[in-house]
Amino acid sequence: MSTSRNPFANHPFLLGFDEVERIVDRAAKSASDGYPPYNIEQHGGGIYRITLAVAGFGDSDLSVTLEDGQLIIRGRKPDDADRSYLHRGIAARQFQRSFVLADGMEVAGATLENGLLHIDLQRVEPQNVVKRVPI
Asked: What's the predicted TM-score (pTM) here?
């Protein structure tokens, strides 16, 4: 017996939320890779910090972008053909880590220190507006 999925976004009282399921699926797919490891901290009042462990990556090897409601962090370290490793235990592979941001979330800044990339986010409270619709 097959069961059809009935997402909550199809409820008749939730109009215009069809994209919510797509966002949840996108977030679930991006969480499957464990590299690089990261922390997410909440500092109260709608302030958050994402910290990624990016040992060996410099400013020029990293990019932080906002694309279609997603915060995307990419790292790419060029291969050093001049080095010959006897053991290579420090990962320097390219990566992409993405986080889906809610409406009103803004990137306040990013810093790289001691092999940790810190990305600060803040929630901007929307203005409550009452709009009268003429009949």
From this structure: 0.72
